[in-house]
Amino acid sequence: MTTLPTPTPTPTAPDAAHSVSLLDALRPALPDLSVGALLGFATGVALRYVGRVVLIVVGVLFITLQLLAYFDLISINWIKLQTLTEPWLRQGGEQGASWLRRVLTANLPFAGAFSAGLLVGLRARV
After folding, report:
1. How many CA atoms lie within 13 Å of 66's alpha carbon, on the beta-carbon side?
2. What is the pLDDT of residues 81-105, one digit of tens each?
3. What angle do CA 111, 106, 93 make, to 5 degrees?
4. What is the 8-class DSSP label of residue 27?
5. Rounded-to-integer distance, Cα 16 and Cα 1, Å
6. Distance (Å, rounded) from C-alpha 35 to C-alpha 108?
7. Which residue spans traverse the membrane (predicted)?
C-alpha cells in the first residue's frame, strides 16, 4: 500500500495578517483623513489664487503711484515708506505662516491630513 504524504498546512504570511489588522485599525479614521486632505487641497489652491490676485493688485498700485509721480502729481518719499513698512513686513513674514497654520487647523481632528493636502494644493498645477 502506498500512502500519500499528508499535506502540510501552509503558514499564513505574517505581513498579510498584519496589514489586514492595520487596515481595520485605520478604517474608522479614513473618512476624516480623506475629508481633511480634500479640504486642505482646496484651501491650498484657493490661497494660490488669492495670492496671485493680491500680487496683481500690489503691482497695479505701484504702477499707478509711479505714473502719478512721473507726472508730478504726487511726491513719494520711498525711504520713509520703507522705514514705516519694514518692521511690519518682517514681523508678518516671521509670524504670518505660523498664524495662518493655527487659524486653518484650529479644532480640526484631521489637521495632519489637512496640512498634507494644503501643501499639495499649494504646489498643484490646477
Report:
1. 6
2. 889 888 887 777 667 778 877 887 7
3. 95
4. G
5. 40
6. 11
7. 29-47, 54-79, 99-122
Assess whether pLDDT exceeds 90 at residue 10: no
Give the pLDDT of residue 4. Answer: 59
Residue 92 in grid coordinates = 508678518
118: nearest Cα among 103, 107, 57: 103
Residue 80, CA distances (Å) to 36, 73, 114 in order: 45, 19, 41
Single-letter amino acid, residue 121: G
pLDDT at 13 over 60: no
**Cα(125)–Cα(45) distance, integer angstroms:** 9
Q: How far is CA 32 from CA 102, 109, 112, in A?
A: 19, 8, 10
pTM: 0.57
- Do 15 and 96 meet the contact criterion of CB atoms below 8 Å apart? no
